[in-house]
Design goal:
Low-confidence stretches of chain B: none
Radius of gyration of chain B: 13 Å
Shape of chain B: globular
Shape of chain A: globular
Number of strands of chain B: 7
Largest interface: A-B, 27 and 18 residues
Helix content of chain B: under 10%
Strand content of chain A: 5-15%
Largest sheet of chain B: 7 strands, mixed, barrel
Oligomer: heterodimer
Chain lengths: ~160, ~110
């Protein structure tokens, strides 16, 4: 969807604009992003039209706009909250999120304790987990700081 | 090419197979053709493309949710005269609209 040669639309001035494509995606995929520092030709965020916004084509349980929140988080350099490893060794490089063994799905019942992170357990209500839209509602202070730092540095052209 | 593998024009090879983990069984992971009705999932679904020569590509979600591919080799579970290895994708069962596989951990 990003290449005019295949019917898509190339990103527009990605140094100064967040480009966001809303389109069909195969394989049940909700969306994806590109971390800062990647190729300009593909820079931006892609969202499945079935998981975009809060009405119209949006389908439950992904109909509260959280896919865009999650993917823009990646665009602003946030990692998945469990650190992208299938054990306790990964890190999201943020100091105020608990270590977690892996992603959570659906709408978990609190607490989900992994990696000795009790009593509160995994922060599955964080936008950077894999839970349903209704179950996620927060970034931490250090995640916000990481995004602000991105806006002050590698993505300063957006400001 | 092993005599146990289907011929090259088999739909097995022209299909992108998508992991429908909701249907996984004790036998293995269940994959459906990309053209099937695949439920939305925040967890990026793995995709499998098989070549007639016993090679292929397994696509999996990455840190920014994009699918990244890695090469794999594959065999049928009951291939005759094929030793097989723990690194191979093993096809346990297959039908035109359903593939059951065991996938080694990367």
């Amino acid at each position: 969807m990003k290449k005019p040669s295949t019917g898509g639309i190339a990103p527009i001035t990605p140094k100064t604009h967040l480009n966001l494509w809303v389109c069909p995606l195969g394989g049940g995929l909700l969306g994806y992003a590109q971390f800062p520092g990647g190729p300009a030709a593909t820079d931006g965020v892609v969202i499945n039209y079935q998981a975009f916004g809060t009405s119209g084509t949006a389908q439950a349980p992904f109909d509260k706009g959280r896919t865009a929140t999650h993917e823009v988080g990646h665009y602003l350099n946030l990692r998945h909250i469990w650190g992208d490893t299938p054990d306790c060794s990964g890190s999201d490089m943020v100091s105020d999120t608990p270590n977690a063994a892996g992603p959570n799905f659906g709408t978990p019942t609190w607490p989900v304790v992994t990696c000795n992170n009790g009593p509160n357990g995994d922060m599955f209500m964080n936008y950077m987990d894999y839970t349903d839209d209704a179950a996620m509602f927060m970034f931490t202070s250090q995640q916000v700081l990481r995004m602000r730092t991105t806006l002050d540095t590698v993505r300063s052209g957006l400001a | 090419m092993s005599a146990d593998r289907p011929p090259p024009d088999e739909p097995l090879y022209s299909t992108t197979w998508v992991h429908v983990f909701e249907e996984d069984t004790g036998e293995g992971a269940v994959y459906r053709p990309e053209s099937a009705s695949i439920p939305l999932s925040r967890r990026p679904r793995e995709q499998l493309v098989l070549d007639p020569n016993g090679q292929g590509t397994l696509f999996a979600g990455s840190a920014d949710d994009r699918l990244g591919g890695r090469p794999i080799t594959w065999r049928h579970q009951h291939s005759h005269g094929v030793a097989g290895s723990d690194d191979e994708v093993c096809i346990v069962d297959r039908a035109p609209d359903r593939l059951v596989v065991r996938i080694p951990k990367s």
